[in-house]
Amino acid sequence: MGSSSYEPKSKAAKWFEERLPILGLIHGTLGAGYNAPRNLNYWWNFGSLAGFMLVVQIVTGIILVMHYTPHVDMAFRSVEHIMRDVNYGWLLRYSHANGASMFFVVVYIHILRGMYFGSYKSPCEVLWFLGLVIYLLMMATGFMGYVLPWGQMSFWGATVITNLFGAFDFYDGMGESILHLLWGGFSVDNPTLQRFFSLHFLLPFVLVGVVILHIWALHLPGSNNPLGIDAKGPGDKIPFHPYYTAKDAFGLSFFIVIFAAFIFYMPNIMGHPDNYIEANPMVTPAHIVPEWYYLPFYTILKALPDKLLGVIAMFASILIFFVLPWLDGSKIRSAKFRPATAFFFWLFLVNALFLGYLGTKSPDEILINIGGGLDALTLGRISTVFYFSYFFVIVPLVSRMETTKPVPTSIAQSVLDARKEG
Amino acid sequence: MTTNDRIEHEEEVTRRNFLYVATGVVGAVGVASAAWPLVDQMNPSADVLALSSVEVDLSAIPKGQTVKILWRGKPVFIRHRTADEITRAVSENTADLKDPENDELRAERPEWLIMIGVCTHLGCVPLDQRGDFGGWFCPCHGSHYDISGRIRKGPAPRNLEVPKYAFLNDTTVKIG
Amino acid sequence: MMKLFKNIGLTAMIVIGGISFANASGDSAYVLKKNDWPHAGPFGSFDKGALQRGLQVYKEVCSACHSLNLVAFRELTALGYTADEVKAFAGEYEFVAGLDDEGEEKFRKGLPQDYFPAPFVSEEEARDANSGALPPDFSLLGKSREHLSLFTPWNSVYGEDYIVGILTTYHEEAPHGVELAEGMNFNETFTGNQIAMMPPLSDDLLEYADGTKATTLQMAQDVATFMYWAAEPKMEERKRMGLKVILFMTLLTIMLYFVNKSVWRKVKNGNDLV
Description:
The structure holds three protein chains of three kinds. Chain A is an all-alpha fold. Chain A has helices spanning about 10-20, 20-30, 45-65, 75-85, 90-115, 125-145, 150-165, 175-185, 190-220, 240-265, 295-305, 305-320, 325, 340-360, 375-400, 410-420, and strands at about 35, 235-240, 365-370, 375. Chain A is globular, with a radius of gyration of 24 Å. The mean pLDDT of chain A is about 95. In chain B, the strands form three sheets. In chain B, strands 5-6-7-8 form a four-stranded antiparallel sheet, with no helix packed on it. Chain B has a three-stranded antiparallel sheet with strand order 1-10-9, with no helix packed on it. Chain C is mainly alpha-helical. Chain C has a domain at about 1-50 and about 140-235: Cytochrome c-like domain (Cytochrome Bc1 Complex, Chain D, domain 2, Orthogonal Bundle). In chain C, the strands form two sheets. A three-stranded antiparallel sheet of chain C has the order 3-4-5. In chain C, a hairpin with a 5-residue loop joins strand 1 and strand 2. Chains in contact: A-B, A-C, B-C. Chains A and C meet through helix 4, helix 5, helix 10, helix 14 and helix 16 of A and helix 1 and helix 8 of C.
């Protein structure tokens, strides 16, 4: 971050820069002062899109707080007050609710891009960690935000998820003590709602802080690229501005069209209809489903027969990403030159989507009619085994054993080679 | 570079600059349009606006009585004035007034005096039928108002404010 | 790489789509009928006649048991009524206005800013009057009975269709082999097929103010339209604004596409390297 090469053009800018070199900081991070590899493809747009979504969520969120009441007796009604009475309230709430989904879509693609092109590998491990911390914070923030409208799914989702922590029952009464601490009572109730509200407000600003660290950690080694080789020569890089500002602006504009399609034409498709019923501690919905972005982990939770093991497996399935840089022993970053790695990556993705799909099903539902019929639970177990074996078996072995394709000597060279080929 | 080349090059630069400026303008319009909902949401919402006017049934207020109602979060005094009070109010049009205003302008129908019950000094609610002028008296800093709600003595700078109102019929008035 | 991506993406979609399709077709013996709604689709707007008739059905039939807590009379102008008509409509209701000098409840006429009054003061009273079942509030039913599917839209169940389904698929007698619980009625659409609500509609149950013939289906569709409006009163505003936003953003996207292309021309294909 930062760049000493920045020279203010106007006198006023120069005066200001001497006192606070913030213009140089911006110039060096998002301007012409930062040089990025010239060959970044559109998968590299998702970082800036994630940043945009964070801003959208914070802005709409702060506005919703102006009209929302965090109390069990009034929360549901105040959300409907926003939807019905507040000027453009429906727009702000639908933007915030769908914005959460969009934020996750964008971040998932961003993570998968990192996996495919080996962006987690040396010297970018800390950058990768910070990204995972952002993701974990997003999960926590999203979960607590979903509780705030105080609908049936809010209440029962909160009940199920907080109860997970009761699994840590290592000595008598410990699990229960943890739960009482989380709830501020003996069940999910007003104290729970109010603390979730407080944290849901706080965490996005923590996120902003980690995002700044994430960008800092990105700019020290510099961006990875589709070839996965270091950008060294002057011909390998181009200034971030105007090239990637233009490309990001185009990508953002296109993305907003899709975002708008959800807000204006299918605003409730990502949500659960039961959340339009006010929370009722006496009636449980037929089946409780978390928001789509948690579904794969929810299936892993359900796949294990023991509650504690299920919870541990669920946390492990996310935390395992932290050791990915060491599980992968290949010297080459990009899967472009690692055909077997690429193949298993796509298999991993399909499996993850399938895990997500299974998350919406009841465990005893028969999904495939072979033999006695395969139910969702059995399929979930098979998928879970594959999920973990991808990390513990496939990646370590394949990365060390596979035959790789020849890697270009430099980015500039690969561009020139492609030019020659026409 | 031949002359032709240069002209072509300049044309291209012009075209490019036009595209950049046009895109910038469209983008700015987009940002401004997106900002409007973020600002407008702070304006009074539909349920608040629905309470911005209130209809009052006057038939239940006897002569010589003041009724206090709540309108837009503030008290409104509705006084059914007696003939004596009206005469007094009109006769004092020529008195030494701090904020000169004729009683005819303050009461559309002389028997009904309708005004916001908030002292123009610092916002306290004046007391009914007290003070040196047979009108209202604000206990906070001692402002005296007459039977037309005009400031006669004390620190208040202006007369009690008259809200917008309209008589829907002889017994119903709509305030706001 | 793109080809591989396409292949795998396609496979995944076929697998997931195929599974859910197979699922849906085997779910229930009864198929929910889909209706044509003028307010569906990106350009849809509410049929004002249907909304007004639906309000009449709600007022004369449903409101005996079902509340509409979140809707205020003032909002009825969206149904095509004038402010004065809404005032008159609100005036037909009575509200408690505190206590009089003897401690008895005082009443006043309803005002546009009032909300539809609930038929029962408490859940207990509501259950007591309905043999233990609680008639749900109508305000959000149009959305809370909806099941939308992004990837398999043909499996989506729309709230309005569900409401019409409930109102029109009663059986006078339960099918052979089905044991109805005490006080229950057989309904194709309701989960579990046993519903406490008696069939609320029958042909010519009421006389429409606009002269439309009040068949059961007509009343069901009208009240479903009204209920969807009650659940999503800003739908028309939303769709109108959406059209403008999407057209505008498409224009901006096209312009930015050319800006991006023009910016990159200098370095495209290594133009700067040779």
